[in-house]
Amino acid sequence: MSDALVIASQDGPVLTLTLNRPAALNSFTGAMHEQLRAALEAAAADAGVRCVVLTGAGRGFCAGQDLADPMVAPAAPGEPARDLSVAITTHYTPLVQRLKSMPVPVIAAVNGVAAGAGANLALNCDFVIAGQSASFIQAFARIGLVPDTGGTWLLPRIVGRARALGLAMLGDKLPAAEAERIGLIWKCVDDAALAGEAASLALRLAAMPVKALAATRAAIDDAQQLTLDEALAMEAALQSQLGSAHDYLEGVAAFGAKRAPVFTDR
Ligand code: T3D
């Protein structure tokens, strides 16, 4: 097995990034953050990548912050308390911002437990597909923290305030099938089918007009803060931009010619 903390493997237009600290359920150290950020930056800059899949090595997806990491481990008695905002602003905030600005769709293939920032890492992706044995835990309250990595923003928007508060305040393990039932994730599949389902969705997305898909993500997120009139204006501005791009011309030409389109914009 590779020593890398994030393993990148490319299959045609699909890049899979595997978090690789299985002995600690792929919890985040500063080094793993740096490798993930570098891999996402490289993917964003690579025209050959049209979809990214994030997954975990071993039996977990990601157990959030590595609680033994010196950056966050509680200080010894008599020493000044750690300022956890340093880890947040140095690592987690840029990670969420990177995911939300990726020029291609991102799928989380959740192969096992996703806890704390690991759960919210998955929820920041465009699609979450989870194996039957996977689970989601807003573990923050268990250790006296609030949901971070965008959890306070994401949870009520995805599942509503009542469920957001229940998940965040109780910190219970939510099985993947229940996560699908309440609309927290896209799909729960048999464990054995997870990699194949993620790969086939990734290939499907990669063949689509990914520039429009990335704009769709931003528009749907941005519209949550807008009035209807503002959203209508935003949609008009986006159609103006996309309507003069290659993919629109190709999509309409392919429709007219009754052939499959070949989308290349990014
Ligand atoms: O702190 C800041 O900078 C602020 C940012 C916070 C972001 C956050 O993510 S806060 C939340 C941090 N995460 C957690 O609190 C989750 C802690 N982990 C667990 O509660 C459990 O491990 C799980 C429920 C996720 C899984 O339980 P289980 O029974 O399947 O596995 P386990 O035996 O607890 O864990 C397996 C190993 O992974 C174990 O190591 P060992 O004993 O075999 O050597 C365990 O210590 C290690 N591990 C799991 N999670 C973490 C971890 N090691 C370090 N940090 C972890 N987060």
Describe this structure in a few short sentences.
Strands 1-2-3-5-7-10 form a 6-stranded mixed beta sheet, with helices on both faces. The protein has a 4-stranded mixed beta sheet with strand order 4-6-8-9. It has 2 domains: 6-206, 2-enoyl-CoA Hydratase, Chain A, domain 1 (Alpha-Beta Complex), CATH 3.90.226.10; 210-257, Lyase 2-enoyl-coa Hydratase, Chain  A, domain 2 (Orthogonal Bundle). The protein has 10 helices and 10 strands.
Task: Walk me through what this model shows.
There is one protein chain. The protein folds into 2 domains: 6-206, 2-enoyl-CoA Hydratase, Chain A, domain 1; 210-257, Lyase 2-enoyl-coa Hydratase, Chain  A, domain 2 (Orthogonal Bundle). Helices cover 45% and strands 16% of the residues. It is built from 10 helices and 10 strands. It has helices at 30-45, 85-100, 117-123, 151-159, 161-170, 176-181, 194-206, 210-223, 228-243, 246-257, and strands at 6-11, 14-19, 51-56, 60-62, 106-110, 113-115, 127-131, 135-137, 173-175, 187-189. The protein has a 6-stranded mixed sheet with strand order 1-2-3-5-7-10, with helices on both faces. A 4-stranded mixed sheet has the order 4-6-8-9. The radius of gyration is 19 Å and the shape is globular. The structure holds ligand T3D. Ligand T3D binds next to α2 and β6.
